[in-house]
Design a protein that fits this description.
Order of helices and strands: HHHHHH
Number of strands: 0
Radius of gyration: 23 Å
Strand content: under 5%
Largest sheet: none
Helix content: 55-70%
Length: 146
């Protein structure tokens, strides 16, 4: 009886106050397994934009690829039901001649294709279509950068 009275005096209700129940609603949901793929898409878009800044003559070739990566990141975030983080990754430092820039982008696209293929193989069916599309796009990007 004393406990109920104390609870009423403190909180105005007789609900028990326990450490486990107090903050249950404040925990963020666990990360979605596709969040790294979305982050990678944003990073790839930033890399392509940085390469354009380093060599504006590549804009016609690289802008559609950068835009595709940005669209993939947005679509992945829509699929997982979470907004993209505010701010975008800063452009990766780029240096070297055109051949060096393109070689670096090809390598990043190849790693990205492998990550997307792995995510596609591990994803439930309702996510596989989008991830298959991302994988195919990244494979196409590798070829476009040759």
């Amino acid at each position: 009886m004393l406990r109920t009275g104390a609870l009423l005096a403190v909180g105005g209700t007789a609900a028990p106050l326990t450490g486990c129940d107090l903050f249950d609603g404040d925990e963020p949901p666990p990360p979605d397994p596709l969040e790294p793929l979305a982050a990678e898409a944003r990073e790839l878009a930033a890399r392509h934009r940085a390469a354009i800044a380093a060599d504006p003559g590549l804009a016609d070739r690289l802008t559609p690829i950068a835009d595709a990566h940005a669209a993939h990141a947005d679509e992945i975030h829509r699929l997982i039901g979470r907004p993209a983080p505010s701010g975008s990754p800063g452009p990766q430092p780029t240096a070297g001649d055109r051949a060096g820039l393109l070689a670096g982008l090809r390598e990043a696209e190849q790693r990205g294709r492998q990550a997307a293929a792995k995510a596609c193989a591990e994803a439930p069916g309702e996510r596989a279509a989008l991830l298959g599309s991302v994988t195919a796009a990244r494979a196409t990007h590798v070829e476009a950068l040759k």
